[in-house]
Amino acid sequence: MKIAARLRQATKKLAATMVATATAASLAVIGGGVAHADNRDWLRPDATGACDWDAAMYWVQRCDVYSPAMGRNIPVLIQPAQRGGDAGFYLLDGMRADDNQTGWTKYVNAAPAYVDSNLTLIMPVGGAGSFYTDWNGQPMMSSQLSGGSRTYMWETFLTAELPAYLQQNFGVSPTNNSIAGLSMGGTAALNLAARHPGQFRQAMSWSGYLTTTAPGMQTLLRIALLDSGGFNINAMYGAIISPRRFENDPYYNMAGLAGKDVYISAATGAWGPGDWNRPINERIMGSGLEALSRMTTVAWESKARRSGLNVTADYAPTGIHNWGIWNDQLWKTRNRVLDVMGAW
């Protein structure tokens, strides 16, 4: 009997060891090769019960965050701070934001850039054509959206609902954040930081459109919104003379950026070494979009400097409107973000 009992005890210990080993191995895979388990090695609660490990790896969790303002769950990809720091870094998508996956992991993988930092990376999913603002016309109709309509209250979500969730479940302070975005997201990053100065300490626009009410811009934006989702720009801001159009134009909405670290970038639209292998239509379209971004960004910078803002500008001599230059900016600004946020 004693021999049998010892055998049973040994078997249980062996099984426990195997389970622990398998768990550690799975965490190493989920963590994208990161060897240590830390503040990141457990899934947080979300609106559906618990977050899921995302295919981006590097400890990125996919969390469904319920938005009362929009009446639905909004997926957010979140990489927790390595050692429990309270700084957050929001990355916003461009005009054609995907409802299922952010471009920051679909076209590039932003997670490796901050995997060793004490900063929480926050990547909202969705918001095509929204400019991440609260729309006047609710809900909007769009033939290209499943279900035919969608409520857009992105500013409320990003500045009230999501921060509350992040503070409760990831320890992110509502007042210790940086925000960056590409193209449409760059426009929104400067707007949100200016309109909510208590939330963001740093704002960065990469190929954003920073003078949206300049002559001809409303027509171009109207075409872009129709093309990206069948949206009517009047549903976003109301009539063409609505004050909200100017309140959400970074050119007129910069007072709230006083005292913050502001970084802007845009290329010329000239084809660089990485652009020649792209289809000719992509090169032509990308050139025009980036040249327009450059023009509006330079105009914004001129006024910002006259206003006394702390602005750093990076104007690349070549590059078209695509993920190549935005991935470059992600890595180029990494140390700047960690310095400003004190999140090394």
Automatic annotation (TrEMBL):
Organism in which the protein naturally occurs: Corynebacterium epidermidicanis
Signal peptide annotation: 1-37
The protein, known as: Putative esterase
Top-rank taxon: Bacteria
Gene3D superfamilies reported for this sequence: alpha/beta hydrolase
Listed GO MF terms: acyltransferase activity, transferring groups other than amino-acyl groups
UniProt xrefs under InterPro entries: AB_hydrolase_fold, Esterase-like, Mycobacterial_A85_antigen
Key words of the record: Signal
